[in-house]
Design goal:
5-stranded antiparallel sheet; 45% helix; Cro/C1-type_HTH; Lambda_DNA-bd_dom_sf; MLTR_LBD; 434 Repressor (Amino-terminal Domain); alpha+beta; Beta-Lactamase
Length: 300
């Protein structure tokens, strides 16, 4: 499987940290609602832009228009929990979006930054042993979707990440800049949206991570689909579900995936792609499993 496309610079053409904030998220969600959603059908006359007007949203939330404008401009600090909850209700946010809004508005503490290198020095060897003991394809990701360590089955299923330069061992680069992944995931768009939603959610939790803006800019300059997905302002957290993959050697694989946050390591996830015991896909995974020694995984 091809793991790398052309390397784009982190310069011009991509998004930057200015569209990670509260104002852009509110404007995006405000544009998705119509006056009729608030019982305002037929009011207000001609509209130059889609969605709710600022004064309509402010009135529904129960705050002044001036205060709401300050929120969109990024000059309102430490917005109260009551206002955030009211905004989430009026904007019809799901729980993940509600939590994201809380973080952006300063109504929830950001997750503590923990140097990933120190984490790896203490625990990476133990995690290598854990993932290699798992029958399915298993790996550990750190902040921004960086790959930290993985097992033989992951190599067989996704390609040899050890051969990828450290700076590109990241799910964003794999999904948007490696053509092989677009054919591997039969619903590639859903997988790509999951990653973009996770990255935006992470950016909201960790606004001090200077590497996020560079990654967003680089991926945006390289791939127009990433730019379009990033502009949607969707947020997600890694979870679980079903994925259908198509591998050149064994054909279709019907797999379940689980993403488990490591409780003592903020922003680090243990991820597994596995098949139902005794299934055809389980047999294919065993057939596919690489006989070579497991990769070491490298600190970032």
């Amino acid at each position: 499987m091809e793991l790398m496309g052309d390397q784009a610079s982190a310069g011009a053409g991509g998004a930057d940290e200015r569209d990670i904030g509260l104002g852009s998220f509110l404007r995006n969600r405000r544009a998705r609602l119509q006056p009729s959603d608030l019982g305002l059908s037929g009011q207000g006359g001609f509209r130059r832009v889609p969605g709710l007007r600022r004064e309509e949203l402010a009135s529904a939330v129960g705050i002044s228009v001036a205060y709401y404008i300050r929120m969109e401009q990024g000059s309102a600090r430490n917005v109260s929990r009551e206002i955030v909850d009211s905004l989430a209700r009026v904007l019809r946010l799901n729980p993940t979006e509600h939590a994201h809004l809380s973080t952006l508005a300063g109504a929830a503490p950001s997750a503590p930054q923990r140097p990933c290198r120190g984490y790896q020095q203490e625990r990476l060897q133990s995690l290598r042993t854990l993932v290699e003991s798992m029958e399915g394809a298993a790996y550990v990701t750190g902040p921004r979707g960086d790959l930290l360590t993985w097992n033989r089955t992951a190599v067989a299923l996704f390609g040899d990440w050890q051969q990828v330069p450290e700076g590109r061992r990241n799910w964003g680069w794999f999904l948007f800049c490696s053509p092989g992944y677009q054919s591997l995931f039969t619903d590639w768009e859903a997988k790509a949206c999951e990653y973009v939603g996770y990255l935006r959610s992470y950016a909201g939790r960790q606004p001090e991570d200077r590497h996020v803006a560079a990654l967003v800019a680089a991926l945006g300059s390289h791939n127009a689909v990433f730019r379009e997905m990033w502009a949607r302002q969707e947020v997600e957290d890694p979870s679980h579900g079903r994925k259908i993959l198509y591998h050149d050697e064994v054909g279709e694989l019907d797999l379940r995936h689980e993403s488990m946050l490591l409780p003592t390591d903020p922003e680090c996830y243990l991820v597994s792609f596995h098949a139902a015991p005794g299934s055809v896909s389980a047999h294919k995974l065993r057939t596919l499993r690489s006989p070579v020694p497991p990769p070491s995984g490298t600190a970032h």
